[in-house]
Amino acid sequence: MINDNLQHSLSSAIELTLAKQAHPLLQAAAYVVQHANHVTINLKALNNLAATLSQDLSPSSGADVCLNLSVDRSNKFGERHWLESAPALVKNFLTTLTLQNRILFLTVFHTIGFCYWGNNSENSEKNTRWTVTLPEGAFSETKSDSKYDGAMALLVSMAINQDFLDLDYLTRLNLEQFKTLLAGQLSENIDSLPLLKERHEFIVSLAQKMRSENYLQTLLPLLATTSAMALALKLAHELPGYLDIAHYKGKEILFLKRAQLLVSDINHTIKISKIEELTAFADYKLPQLLRHYQVISYEPALATRVDQLSELKPGSEEEVEIRAATIIAVELLRQELEKSGLATSASAVDSQLWLLSQRLDKTKVQPYHRCKTVFY
């Protein structure tokens, strides 16, 4: 659904994008947006956000911002990658790994890295989210205790326990051992982490596949010859839990959030061709950020459900529309930045918006939508 009198403009923008790229994920997302009943994209707000990003990125701004799209080792698509915000412990650990083990680390991470919220409370005193705490001086990390949750907790947990890279061990892992592997001595509230059974099944299945098929050894040569979207589709069909597809009004809608994000992360280890083929990675944080900037809005009933922390059913019209609007909004932001001379990819814009979402005052931002799903 399109805000006010902007339907023709947005439809034209979407059609131009599709004419240029004939992109299966963009085509599917555009279909949802054009038929949406619950979610609206506001082009005026979108253009305002693009202008703000463009001003922040101008050489004369002098602002100390992490939205740096202008420089990249590829000299074509500039971004500050989301992993740059990881704890020093994680970044240092990644530099010690061989190429094969770094890709294994990223693959294991994305295989079990989804749906971190533990309960329906925005109040930190009532929140029982899974956390990992590094004590003062531990691993030369900080001068004070550092507590992590969500994706950062998983990264830290994996960096301090190399059993995550032991395929023989992972193939024999039972559920209780998996919980112990995640928790360790520095973790709290492991049982509040949703979908533990699914994560366990995925990591065991992944390890069995990688060990029995020498999967990484076969994959490595393909990284230099396979385009980003072809690689994402391959991973989505071959790895457990990655085939992120919904159905909406009779049509199949591809999102492939984790498969695309894995390809994007691998690209920061070894260059993948046509990285610009990737779309935004439709999850929780980006629609929350876009709603904060009024780029997307929800019809009243959906807004109430999201604000009251009511769970949305995976694959419901509302959830599919939120994710599709996120993909199209980020693609249109990319186009606006390109008009300002900042050529970049949608996946790069996604990364910068995710980093921005981490800096917002959580007390002033409306909640993200709740949906228990293995896809994000």
Instruction: Count every helix, treating DSSP H or I runs of 4 or more residues as helices.
Output: 16
Name the strands of the widest sheet in spatial order.
Answer: 3-2-4
Large-scale geometry = globular
Mean pLDDT, all residues: 86
Chain-wise SSE layout:
Blueprint: H1 7-21, H2 24-34, E1 39-41, H3 43-57, H4 88-96, H5 99-112, E2 131-134, E3 146-149, H6 150-159, H7 167-171, H8 175-183, E4 187-188, H9 196-213, H10 215-222, H11 228-238, E5 245-248, E6 251-254, H12 257-267, H13 285-292, E7 296-298, H14 300-307, H15 317-339, H16 346-359
Task: Explain how this protein is built.
The protein has a 3-stranded antiparallel beta sheet, with helices on one face. A two-stranded antiparallel sheet has the order 1-7. It has 376 residues and is mainly alpha-helical. Helix 3 (43-57) packs across helix 15 (317-339), helix 5 (99-112) runs antiparallel to helix 12 (257-267) and helix 13 crosses helix 16. The protein has helices at residues 7-21, 24-34, 43-57, 88-96, 99-112, 150-159, 167-171, 175-183, 196-213, 215-222, 228-238, 257-267, 285-292, 300-307, 317-339, 346-359, and strands spanning 39-41, 131-134, 146-149, 187-188, 245-248, 251-254, 296-298. The chain starts with 6 loop residues before the first helix and ends in a 17-residue tail after the last helix.
